[in-house]
Design a protein that fits this description.
By secondary structure, the chain is an alpha/beta fold. The protein has 15 helices and eleven strands. α5 links the parallel β2 and β3.
Length: 375
């Protein structure tokens, strides 16, 4: 979509993207403010902020973020915001829209608006800063301004996290195009980019389009994990016809708590799925969640079997099981409770308090689960 037309009206994909980012910002900011009371300031950075509003009056990500910050007095007292867009006209519109928002005066630190190109000099500037806990959102039109170095310049700081737009359709086309070698190297690191080129050019390669996509996402995730990001969570967007992947947003964090919070948010915005297990995908042509499955073994059955194997002979709380098991897996806490209830119903495990002392179909986080030895 041409940039001139982009702000006419939001697509369903752009609305979901903005909602995920704004909801996570609010959760992240509340956690930092409550768990790190000694921190005097927290920060939000949006490097490709745009105008902030569509022509129909709908807020895009920057103003959604600002609204959330204003709504919570504790956040409003500590949040420092940088909105940047290389197009000064966009930046000026965003400033004007922000300043007329209800409650704008409640912000202890007024947002800073810039119109800078995101180039090597800008990244070097960020690298020299001693940042407060920061959430950075990077949403470029393309991908040439996106690099691991930029992401790591923020991620290296305490309690700092990054969400970025990953333009899969264009990056996929650029991997083997010699004119974009440097851009791709900056994104994947040179040795990973070279491996991708080698594999994709290999005539014997039988990768399907989906396998090719998964390989690209795997490589960028490994590059992120290698430095500062212990946990990487991609969310996939299909095009308007639902026939192919358009792009992803990718979340990077060093802390399991942030990972779990984002999983829950992305799960709520996922389409498709079976038994409430999220797909981490938004497809405009698929109805929301809980589709019927023709598989004999359902996702909850698979999770239940995995729990029996992984916790053989152990006793843990429901909360302990979730935190020990969910990292790197698609399941959310409600999926774990469903699997445990199913195992209890089938006589595979014992739970305290037992089902006779609980409301039917419920399970508290503090309930104890006894797993027999797996055979």
């Amino acid at each position: 979509m041409a940039t001139a037309d982009f702000f006419e009206a939001p697509t369903s994909q752009s609305q979901v993207k903005a909602n995920i980012v704004a909801q996570y910002f609010y959760s992240w900011a509340k956690i930092i403010v409550s768990k790190m009371p000694a921190v005097q300031q927290i920060a939000y950075i949006d490097l490709f902020a745009g105008r902030g509003v569509y022509e129909d009056g709908t807020y895009s990500t920057p103003l959604k973020i600002l609204k959330r910050a204003i709504e919570n007095p504790d956040i409003a007292k500590k949040i420092a915001i940088l909105f940047n867009d290389a197009d000064k006209k966009f930046s000026d519109v965003l400033r004007a829209e922000a300043e007329k928002m209800d409650g704008y005066s409640k912000l202890a630190y007024k947002p800073h608006f810039e119109s800078q190109e995101i180039n090597q000099e800008f990244v070097e500037r960020i690298e020299k800063l001693n940042l407060a806990p920061t959430l950075m959102f990077v949403d470029p039109w393309g991908y040439k301004n996106l690099s691991l170095r930029l992401i790591n310049s923020v991620l290296k700081h305490k309690a700092s996290e990054v969400i970025f737009f990953f333009n899969y359709r264009r990056i996929n086309a650029a991997v083997t195009n010699k004119y974009f070698t440097q851009h791709i190297d900056n994104l994947f690191e040179t040795h990973r980019a070279q491996e991708l080129r080698k594999r994709f050019k290999d005539r014997s390669s039988t990768l399907t389009p989906y396998q090719r996509e998964q390989e690209i996402i795997k490589q960028v995730a490994e590059a992120l994990i290698h430095d500062y990001g212990k946990h990487v969570l991609p969310f996939r967007f299909m095009n308007s016809t639902g026939t192919r992947c358009s792009h992803h947003i990718i979340f990077v964090t060093k802390h399991p708590l942030g990972y779990g919070v984002m999983k829950d948010i992305m799960a709520k915005h996922s389409t498709g799925g079976v038994e409430g297990v999220p797909t981490y995908e938004f497809n405009p042509r698929i109805l929301k969640n809980n589709q019927a499955s023709l598989e004999l073994e359902t996702p909850i059955d698979k999770l239940a079997l995995s729990l029996c194997r992984d916790f053989s002979g152990k006793q843990l709380t429901v909360e302990g099981i979730y935190h020990a098991h969910h990292l790197g897996k698609p399941y959310i806490k409600s999926n774990y409770k469903a699997a445990l209830i199913r195992l209890e119903q089938n006589g595979k495990i014992k739970i305290k308090p037992p089902v006779s002392e609980r409301r039917q179909g419920t399970l508290t986080d503090s309930a104890f689960v006894n797993f027999p030895l797996f055979r």
